[in-house]
């Protein structure tokens, strides 16, 4: 296994493990928020869910077998489309529901009547939230370190998302501390802020992943053709397709004709082409169909 393949495999494992850990933490937050009747924790769970979908999109980007082959180099996949619409529905419905409950809570507080969603804060649940903060912080640090080692920008983006999630959870704990001291208004105000911020987080997620989901040529074919022809041994290249975002991650698919029929030339040329594109444009995954004048190699 080459060093590039090793880095690629490790990046897949990192995203996969982080994805399932974040889904587990999301489930714990939802159950804890419902047990405590905390609107702020339920609203913060939306942010945890957004992080989970961000990791899911990253995982699909690095494991999808149809993209490197070029069959879907142009156009987004059906899975990504489904998940985008699913997340949009959940975030919209969740934010609206939380804001509606917040309004009811505020009206009850103003009238000094029983709260329709009474918050029950206990020390064990606060300790559990503290453990969740420590866990997500550890995940964020791990992804940040790996992003520098593996040089995959998506790991860095996910690390930033996890750090943001950690900070929001810490704010929720602070607001629940105010409820512990007898002021339920803290939980309501925090929930309203987080529900609104969830919409912004969703938009930031889509903005970052969108270039990998939609039909977008990363590099003009003629530019890649000129770069590839500078590699010694290449006689001709055509059917060049690229997709993604330069500097972040993109895919390239092309057909090559070599000048020589030497058996060892094809792997060498493939490595040189990939290195040339990577040096100029950043992280890339390449699929090459190589042949010479006598047929496919």
TrEMBL record:
- Start and end of every Cation efflux protein transmembrane domain? 15-207
**A Gene Ontology MF term for this entry?**
monoatomic cation transmembrane transporter activity
* Annotated transmembrane regions: 12-34, 46-62, 82-101, 121-142, 162-182
Query: What InterPro entries does its record include?
Result: Cation_efflux (IPR002524), Cation_efflux_CTD (IPR027470), Cation_efflux_CTD_sf (IPR036837), Cation_efflux_TM (IPR058533), Cation_efflux_TMD_sf (IPR027469), CDF_Transporter (IPR050291)
Which Gene Ontology cellular component terms are annotated? membrane
The question of whether Protease is a record keyword is answered with no
Q: Where in the cell is it found?
A: Membrane
**Alphabetic keyword roster:** Membrane, Transmembrane, Transmembrane helix, Transport
* Gene3D superfamilies according to UniProt: Cation efflux protein transmembrane domain (1.20.1510.10), Cation efflux protein, cytoplasmic domain (3.30.70.1350)
Residue intervals of the Cation efflux protein cytoplasmic domain: 224-291
Membrane-topology descriptor? Multi-pass membrane protein
Q: Main location per UniProt? A: membrane
Superkingdom is Bacteria
Q: Which SUPFAM superfamilies match?
A: Cation efflux protein cytoplasmic domain-like, Cation efflux protein transmembrane domain-like
Which N-terminal stretch is annotated as signal sequence? Answer: none
Q: Which family does it belong to?
A: Belongs to the cation diffusion facilitator (CDF) transporter (TC 2.A.4) family.
PANTHER family (alphabetical): MITOCHONDRIAL METAL TRANSPORTER 1-RELATED
Q: Can you say what this protein is called?
A: Cation diffusion facilitator family transporter
The opening ranks of the lineage are: Bacteria, Bacillati, Cyanobacteriota, Cyanophyceae, Spirulinales
């Amino acid at each position: 296994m080459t060093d590039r393949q090793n880095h690629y495999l490790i990046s897949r494992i990192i995203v996969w493990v982080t994805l399932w850990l974040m889904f587990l933490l999301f489930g714990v937050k939802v159950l804890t928020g419902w047990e405590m009747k905390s609107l702020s924790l339920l609203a913060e769970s939306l942010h945890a869910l957004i992080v989970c979908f961000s990791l899911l999109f990253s995982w699909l980007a690095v494991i999808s077998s149809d993209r490197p082959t070029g069959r879907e180099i142009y156009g987004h996949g059906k899975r990504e489309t489904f998940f985008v619409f699913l997340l949009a529905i959940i975030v919209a419905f969740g934010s609206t529901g939380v804001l509606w409950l917040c309004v009811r809570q505020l009206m009850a507080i103003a009238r000094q009547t029983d709260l329709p969603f009474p918050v029950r804060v206990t020390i064990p649940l606060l300790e559990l939230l503290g453990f969740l903060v420590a866990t997500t912080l550890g995940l964020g640090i791990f992804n940040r370190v790996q992003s520098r080692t593996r040089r995959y920008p998506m790991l860095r983006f996910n690390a930033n998302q996890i750090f943001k999630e950690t900070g929001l959870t810490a704010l929720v704990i602070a607001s629940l501390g105010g409820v512990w001291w007898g002021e339920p208004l803290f939980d309501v105000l925090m929930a309203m802020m987080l529900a609104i911020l969830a919409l912004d987080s969703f938009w930031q997620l889509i903005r970052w992943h969108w270039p990998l989901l939609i039909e977008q040529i990363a590099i003009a074919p003629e530019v890649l053709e000129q770069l590839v022809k500078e590699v010694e041994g290449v006689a001709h290249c055509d059917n060049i397709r690229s997709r993604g975002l330069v500097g972040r991650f993109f895919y390239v698919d092309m057909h090559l004709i070599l000048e020589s029929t030497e058996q060892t030339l094809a792997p060498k040329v493939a490595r040189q082409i990939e290195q040339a594109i990577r040096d100029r444009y950043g992280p890339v995954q390449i699929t090459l169909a190589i042949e010479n004048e006598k047929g496919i190699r």
